[in-house]
Amino acid sequence: MNGVESVEIEVVRLAHGRDLALPDYATAAAAGADLLAAIDGEIELGPLERKIVPTGISLALPVGFEGQVRPRSGLAFKNGITVANAPGTIDADYRGEVGVILINLSRKPFKITRGMRIAQLVIARHARAIWREVGELDRTARGAGGFGSTGVSAGVSVGEAKTGTG
Fold first, then answer.
1. pTM
2. Which site from 46, 69, 159, 166 is most exposed, i.e. has the minimal number of CB atoms within 10 Å?
3. DSSP code of residue 166
4. Which CATH superfamily is domain 10-125 in?
5. β strands within the chain, DSSP E
6. CA 135 to chain CA centroid, nearest Å
């Protein structure tokens, strides 16, 4: 697609994923490629239960890239199924099978079937930090405020959100 960087990723299709498609993008502008469940039969995921679902593939990501395993919005909204450690990270030096930790946040059991699209894989660049200890950080308008310190409504200052006055 025009304007989107491409990177070649080596993929091994494992024996139990032999008949499944490789990760693929549902649309031309999709950021995430769908990961499929490489299981025999069905897996039932009970309420608040989590399981690692195999995908039948192993990857070799280039150094400087990571694979981010993310939930599928449809599964999350319609069924309460999400990725427990979202986003899960696949490091460039990992060569094992990609597994997806799914959790059922609904009150009803959910069945996962072979070939079901269970998560998305986004390939992203990353940087490594070089930590430099200092005695003090530079000052910003926000400062140390966090966890709701910027208010809940657009256009409302921090002081207004806390006190209700201008």
1. 0.84
2. 166
3. -
4. Deoxyuridine triphosphatase (dUTPase) (2.70.40.10)
5. 10-13, 24-25, 33-36, 42-45, 50-60, 65-70, 81-83, 88-90, 97-104, 110-113, 117-125
6. 35
